[in-house]
Design goal:
Blueprint: E1 18-20, H1 22-28, E2 33-38, H2 48-61, E3 70-75, H3 78-90, E4 93-98, H4 104-112, E5 116-119, H5 126-132, H6 137-151, E6 155-157, H7 165-181, E7 188-192, H8 197-209, E8 214-220, E9 261-265, H9 267-281, H10 287-300, E10 309-314
């Protein structure tokens, strides 16, 4: 009998289950088999637990992180939660620089682990630099890292956008778990792109086992990206555009050689799919998972994909979104097409 007593929360990360989406598929009239990898079964209910652990332990092995140092990261939420938990378990201080628009649940969970939460709007010069860089979040993040580490040498940024331990974690864990649990029988793998690590690492492993597996990357549609006409759209949390973007705006961890196709999803479509999933399968997932579910619907509806097996990476649970409009069944998802982001910076503290 396998041991059931563990020595640390870090030992509970990974080995998440695959769920056959039977009722969801039946309701949509889909003829492909959909399997959802439920990353909400990680200790902090998100796929980001995997990279949080991998990046911290790699920094320890490399001698870049030592007792007394402060770990820091910029994040839309889930990486911050995972790092806060693991930092607490390992005895490190943690500081997170966080987008003002994240749900209140996320910042409060991070604070519950004893971490320091710093909204972007409170960082001197960040807003001005972000505006001057024409909204280039990747460049703004690099600027923030430089400013902080020059002033505080004992602060160690994990830099998830470019840290190779990020995709490697998925190449060593997420991909092999999917291959094992499907017994190597899958045709399509779908994941959203934030840092690019999940798609790149998992896709790289799956392709190494079977080059014919079709890897699909999900990004936000044009209507869900900031523009001059619509500067603050209701965005899909943690999902970033990469098609048609200049190289400096694309996270270095996104491997363009891995994916075969890109599907763009609007926020209201992601909300609609997440709601349908809750009502048919009894599982709450976040809006990035909703985007993956919507993309999978489109793939499964294609005649050439009838009878094929599609594996979906459902990145996190939905409990951290209950203060948002994601599960507001009284408001049709389609009515959110022109919705703007509601600032919640005053709630973050």
């Amino acid at each position: 009998m396998a041991a059931s007593i563990y020595g640390s929360i870090t030992e509970l990360i990974g080995q998440t289950p695959l769920l056959r989406l039977s009722r969801f598929s039946e309701q949509q009239g889909l003829r492909a088999e959909l399997l959802g990898k439920l990353e909400l079964f990680n200790p902090n209910h998100s796929v980001k637990d995997r990279i949080a652990l991998a990046m911290i332990e790699q920094a320890e092995r490399d001698g870049l992180l030592k007792p007394g140092d402060t770990i820091a990261e910029t994040t839309s939420g889930n990486t911050g939660i995972g790092v806060a938990s693991i930092a607490a378990a390992k005895g490190y201080r943690f500081r997170v620089y966080i987008n003002d628009f994240v749900s209140i649940e996320r910042s409060r969970i991070i604070q519950a682990y004893g971490a320091e939460v710093v909204p972007f709007s409170t960082v001197p010069g960040f807003a001005d630099y972000y505006a001057s860089s024409d909204g280039d979040f990747v460049a703004a993040t690099r600027w923030l890292v430089t400013q902080v580490t020059e002033a505080e040498p004992d602060v160690r940024f994990l830099q998830q956008l470019q840290n190779p331990a990020n995709p490697r974690a998925h190449e060593l864990t997420t991909g092999p778990e999917i291959w094992r649990d499907t017994q190597g029988r899958l045709d399509i793998f779908v994941a959203s792109v934030g840092t690019g690590g999940t798609l790149s690492g998992t896709g790289r492993f799956l392709k190494s086992q079977d080059p014919l597996i079709h890897i699909v990357a999900v990004e936000p549609g044009a209507g869900s990206q900031p523009s001059a006409q619509h500067p603050e759209p209701l965005e899909i949390t943690g999902v970033h555009a990469f098609s048609g973007q200049p190289p400096e705006r694309i996270p270095p961890n996104l491997d363009h050689q891995v994916y075969d196709e890109t599907i763009a999803v609007e926020t209201w479509q992601a909300y609609q799919a997440a709601r349908q999933f809750a009502l048919t399968e009894g599982v709450l997932v976040g809006d990035s998972s909703g985007a993956v579910l919507f993309a999978a619907q489109q793939l499964a509806a294609r005649p050439e994909n009838e009878g094929k097996r599609i594996v979906l990476l459902l990145a996190d649970g939905g409990a951290n979104y209950l203060s948002t409009r994601l599960f507001d069944h009284g408001q049709p998802a389609e009515s959110l097409k022109q919705a703007t982001a509601v600032q919640t910076s005053q709630q973050l503290l």
